[in-house]
Design a protein that fits this description.
The complex is a heterodimer of chains A (139) and B (128). Chain A is an all-alpha fold and 139 residues long. Chain A has four helices and no strands. Chain A has one domain. Chain A is elongated and about 60 Å long. The N and C termini of chain B lie far apart (54 Å). Classes of the chains: A mainly alpha (139), B mainly alpha (128).
Amino acid sequence: MRSRAMPKPSWNLEYLMWIFTRISGLSLILLAVLGISLGLLMGARTQMDMGTLMRWAFFPNSNHVLDSEIPDIFLWANGFWQIMQILVVVFAATHGFNGLRVVLEDYTSPGFWQAALRFLIFLLWVFSGLVAIYVILGS
Amino acid sequence: MALSRKVGLLAGAKYKGGGPMLAWALHRISGLGIILFVTLHVIASFLTQQMGSDLGISINIFYESIYFQLFIVFCAIFHGVNGFRIIVLDIWPRLIRYQKESTWLEWFVILPLYLLTAFIMIRRFLAG
């Protein structure tokens, strides 16, 4: 059997988002592991319960650890964690809204309504990203 | 689109896709579950913090209930581990031959992680 020639990938939206989904997925796992490990190093082992640490791992915002027994919020609310939060939000929102677009395109046929829903998802992505960064820099 | 995809729910359920198909379906469901949770959380936080509305507190009670939490923990763990499996198979395409085995292997990671977490959560819930 003759093997097929490898198709040359063209840099369209589908291909770019296919790559981005893999990269952002790996990054999100890595960011969650970093959140848990650094949280444990900062004293979570004795100062908070598992649920609070998991909330922190999902999104390292200081509001998520306020009702624990940490003595000082300073370690948990600073520029480093703001950068980590922006990374989590940008990766997760883009990964999630793109996933929603893929699911949507599976269950609708091309036409006006699919285009309208795609545009709505795009607007939601831009809006939620801006709001999230505003909230992160304000908290 | 060349393919006609008008397949009913019953015909779809009868299709013998096995482990990889179950993983595909659960990956989709768990992804949508995480979107649902994050959306509810953002709406509830906005309503309580900016509007002082009781609706936000009601949504909060809904997604902080033990049933929703058990569901969302499963979604997060499954989506993460299965996504990692997909990435590994995509980086090393020769491993696609062992796709079925890889779905069995992932359950050996997911089940202990999820059952241990669920055990801690339920014990806490029962203790009050």
